[in-house]
Design goal:
- By secondary structure, the protein is an alpha/beta fold.
- Strands 1, 2, 3, 4, 5, 6, 7, 8, 9 and 10 form a 10-stranded parallel sheet that branches.
- α11 links the parallel β8 and β9.
- α3 crosses α10, α4 runs parallel beside α5 and α5 packs parallel to α6.
- The longest helix has 16 residues.
- The structure holds S-adenosylmethionine (SAM), 6-(5-methyl-2-OXO-imidazolidin-4-yl)-hexanoic acid (DTB) and iron/sulfur cluster (SF4).
- The site of S-adenosylmethionine has 17 residues, from loops.
Length: 354
């Protein structure tokens, strides 16, 4: 019988696959914690400099009053979260905010709108925002809900680099969290964004009362897409008073780290973003997430409607952990180490330090 040497397993782990089985992924998730982290950290080092973390900044360009009923969200008109709805921001205010984010070290600007999908009358402004932020020399990302092919083409022409559209959880658990659109709707938008040649940002939320199997299944869905999303945000639920998920039992932080590690192993060349929920995480938990392969964060004082650690806290954490930001050249494409797509061949490259 053929036995795999540690070196051949390293090689296998580092090569992107799209044929993950639930059983295989669940087996990894359930490894002894030290073995799982060692596997994930080894994969991480194959493709990325483990001491560099990409920094994105978010802005809510249209807040609240959303027609969707996502059970976690402060912005849904279905829940009494007390959030005040506002209109789409002025283009020049968005560009001014992006300029400040760039000065604070962010390389990617992510603009989010509380829409089921954009209305045609909003698209002119949205396109102007993409063009303006792009002209600052930043990477652009938008999350606007579902898109028509015409919307996608306009965003692509305007210079949109990434489209964020999360699958949020497993297909099974999805309908317990959101009833106003389906899991298949989400996958359809993702496929059409990909087809148009844009980079994909898609992940989910951990800590919504899902089972371990739901977490594993969510990652199997993402990792078995034809191409891995270049960016995989893993959010920890921020409990919003007045939403159906307020009062959900907090996830064991160890399980959160396991999810990050599994995402890293299953999508070895993607950026795994430690996203919402960092204000509730200890520095030690964040450090473990970085060790397990998270290599991107949201910076700044706010996410969309909730708090984020802010510049001073993150600067202090980076200093204590010996971490550094990543510039756009190094973070362009799906991976910093070899400048190819999330699924292309890998080799050690310029973004790795010794
Ligand atoms: N309306 C668009 C949509 O749903 O695609 C874009 C904005 S939406 C707020 C973007 C993502 O933020 C959601 O898909 C979800 O994964 C994440 N998110 C929203 N509220 C959250 C919360 N309370 N805790 C953690 N993540 C959250
Ligand atoms: C993602 O996965 N997380 C970000 C971004 N993509 C759009 C949003 C987090 C939102 C957290 C709750 C809030 O601030 O309203
Ligand atoms: Fe609307 Fe997006 Fe919030 Fe869902 S997550 S309610 S679609 S803003």
């Amino acid at each position: 019988m053929l036995t795999r040497t540690p070196a051949s397993r390293e090689r296998d782990d580092a090569t992107p696959r799209h044929d993950w089985t639930r059983a295989g992924a669940a087996q990894l998730y359930g490894l002894p914690f030290n073995d799982l982290l060692f596997r994930a950290a080894t994969v991480h080092r194959t493709h990325f400099d483990p001491n560099r973390v990409q920094r994105s900044q978010l802005l809510s360009i249209k807040t609240g009053g959303c027609a969707e009923d996502c059970g976690y969200c402060s912005q849904s008109a279905h829940h009494a979260s007390g959030l005040k709805a506002s209109k789409l921001m002025e283009v020049r205010s968005v560009i001014e905010a992006a300029r400040k984010a760039k000065a604070g070290g962010a390389t990617r600007y992510c603009m989010g709108a509380a829409w089921r999908e954009p209305k045609q009358r909003d698209m002119d402004a949205v396109v102007a925002m993409v063009e303006g932020v792009k002209a600052l020399g930043m990477e652009t990302c938008m999350t606007l809900g579902m898109l028509t092919d015409t919307d996608i083409a306009r965003l692509k022409t305007a210079g949109l680099d990434y489209y964020n559209h999360n699958i949020d959880t497993s297909e099974r658990y999805y309908s317990e969290i959101i009833t106003t659109r389906t899991f298949a709707d989400r996958l359809d938008t993702l496929a059409r964004v990909r087809e148009a040649g844009m980079k994909v940002c898609s992940g989910g939320i951990i800590g919504m009362g899902e089972t371990e199997t739901d977490r594993v299944d969510m990652l199997v869905t993402l990792a078995n897409l034809e191409e891995h999303p270049e960016s995989v945000p893993i959010n920890m639920l921020i409990e919003i008073p007045g939403t159906p998920l307020a009062g959900t039992a907090r996830i064991d932080p160890i399980d959160f780290v396991r999810t990050i590690a599994l995402a890293r192993i299953m999508m070895p060349r993607s950026f795994v973003r430690l996203s919402a929920g960092r204000t509730e995480m200890t520095d030690e938990l964040q450090a473990l997430c970085f060790f397990a392969g998270a290599n991107s964060i949201f910076v700044g004082e706010t996410l969309l409607t909730t708090d984020n650690p802010g510049e001073d806290k993150d600067a202090d954490l980076f200093r204590r952990l010996g971490l550094d930001g990543l510039d756009i050249e190094a973070s362009d494409g799906a991976n910093a180490a070899d400048g190819a797509s999330a699924d292309g061949p890998g080799c050690h490259g310029h973004a790795r330090s010794a």
